[in-house]
Each structure stands twice: as structure tokens, then as C-alpha cells.
Amino acid sequence: MAWLEVLRSGARTTVQDRGRVGHASLGVGVAGAADITAHDCANRLVGNDPSAATLEVTLGGLQVRAVGPATIAVTGAPTPLMINGAPGPLYSTIHLQDGDEVALGIAAAGLRSYLAVRGGIDVPAVLGSRSTDTLSGIGPEPIRDSDRLLIGNLHSELPIENFFPPPAPATDPVELRIRMGPRDDWFTPASRTALVRQTWEVTADTDRVGTRLEGPAPLLRVGRGELPSEGMVTGALQVPPNGMPVLFLIDHPVTGGYPVIAVVVEDDIPAAAQLRPGSRIRFRRV
């Protein structure tokens, strides 16, 4: 039996897969990998089933030792990768021998990296998923120093390609496409225009639940009415009374009581998941 021994857990490392779908009526969100594109790519590089769990590493700092041979790949934020103290390639298939050590440095850009191991991280599934939901606490605990992570058998043939081209560096500001609504009529015409004309900045208040944004001017409501709680989705731009939007990410609550002025399109959620404090955003209507 092979496993990964955690020598250093980093700032925030969790187990993630493609999430638990269909439980919103129970008050349970989807969770899963925040950057699903990077997660899926890491799994493909090691020949895993799409349902296999990876390690989502926030800002880097993870260090693990292979106990037994293992095959891994690291994708996502462009973090320095070291194999036994020597530089290793991102977005590549890497074969480890017993005792080999893997260390992720601090990412110079982006926020989240993904380490896939051939077979997947083998932790108990809860409601059909191995994902850690940081809002509800459902799923495995965040990774800690000295944890032993068993390796599963959710794999098939290795791909012919052992390297995938990494994504292009993010632009500054990052452009995120949005669809207006469902509550854009709660805001003044000037504020609806300001949403797409202003440049917004990611604050330090950001995690898997959501990202608070700051801009030159708040988004103002037409009236002072109260909105009953209603369902929320990943990518929702909810606007609290201070007028500064909150971009909901993958661990968002399933309901909310503030109006949602717009929703980021699903294909741009991976880019939103890589935004770190200080990143700048422009929204574009589609």
C-alpha cells in the first residue's frame, strides 16, 4: 500500500474532487475544486478517473514524501515545484520513487495549485464526494502536518502526452464575463453601468466561500426594501448594504438575503478562483 506523508501542510490545503451535486435542498453546497480546469488537468496527466480527488493547495507551501512509488502532477497557480530539492516541471507527469519528496513553493501569481496522484487521494466520501466544504464542515478535515494520505485506485491508462501546455498568464486586470440579474433592477442605472466600467480590486477577505471586492464607488440601490432569502449560485455577485460586491465561489452558502446584481459565467469561475488579494477585475456583460 502506498501513501503520501505530509511533511508540511502549507497555508491551506484541502482534499477536493468535482463536488457533491444535488443537495442544495438539504442546505449542502457543491464544494469541489475551486479551479476545476486545473484540477481536471492534473487528473488527466496521471490517468485518473475524473472523480478522483486531488489536493488543493492555497498559496503553496505543501511538502509531501512518497511512501512507495507514485505518479503525480501539479497544475494551477505557477508555483515553484521541487522534487528532492531540484526544480520539477508543472503540468507534467512525474514518477516518484519510495522516499522522494515533493515541495511546492509560494506562488508568484495566482492562488491555488492542484496536486494529483495516480489513483486519487483516498478519503471517505460524504454524500458522494470527497471534497472538503469549508463553510459547512462536511468532508475531510483540512490537511495537517504528519497526515498520511492513502492513495486510491481510481485510474486507467496513462495518457500518451506527459505534458500539457499551461494556461496563458492572467491579464491585468482580469476580465470576467457576467450575465446581469436576477436582481439588477434593484440598483440605479448609474450603478449598473459602474459595475462594468469600474476596475474592482480583490481584498484580503477572500477564501473558498467568496471574495470581497472594492471599487471607486459603491453600487447604490434604487430603494430601501428588504429581500427574502433566495438561492445562490457559484459566481453570484451579491451586494451588501455597503455597496461593495462579494463574488461567491465554490463553498458559497446555498441561500442569501442581499440582492445579486449579476453572475459570473461558469467558464470564468476557474479564473475567479485564482484571484488573490490585490488582483484587479473588470466585468464584461455577455
- Structural category: mainly beta
Name the assembly state: single chain
> What strand line-up does the widest sheet have?
12-19-16-17-14-13-20
Q: Which radius of gyration do the C-alpha atoms yield?
A: 20 Å
Topology:
Blueprint: E1 3-8, E2 12-16, H1 36-45, E3 54-58, E4 63-67, E5 70-76, E6 81-83, E7 86-87, E8 94-96, E9 101-104, E10 112-117, E11 148-150, E12 174-180, H2 189-197, E13 200-206, E14 210-214, E15 230-231, E16 236-238, E17 246-248, E18 255-256, E19 260-264, H3 269-273, E20 280-285
Parallel strand pairs: 12-20
Antiparallel strand pairs: 1-4, 1-11, 2-3, 3-10, 4-9, 5-8, 5-10, 6-7, 6-9, 12-19, 13-14, 13-20, 14-17, 15-18, 16-17, 16-19
Structural summary, described in words:
It is a single chain. By secondary structure, this protein is mostly beta strands. The chain is built from three helices and 20 strands. Strands 12-19-16-17-14-13-20 form a seven-stranded mixed β-barrel. Strands 7-6-9-4-1-11 form a six-stranded antiparallel sheet, with no helix packed on it. It is elongated, with a radius of gyration of 20 Å.
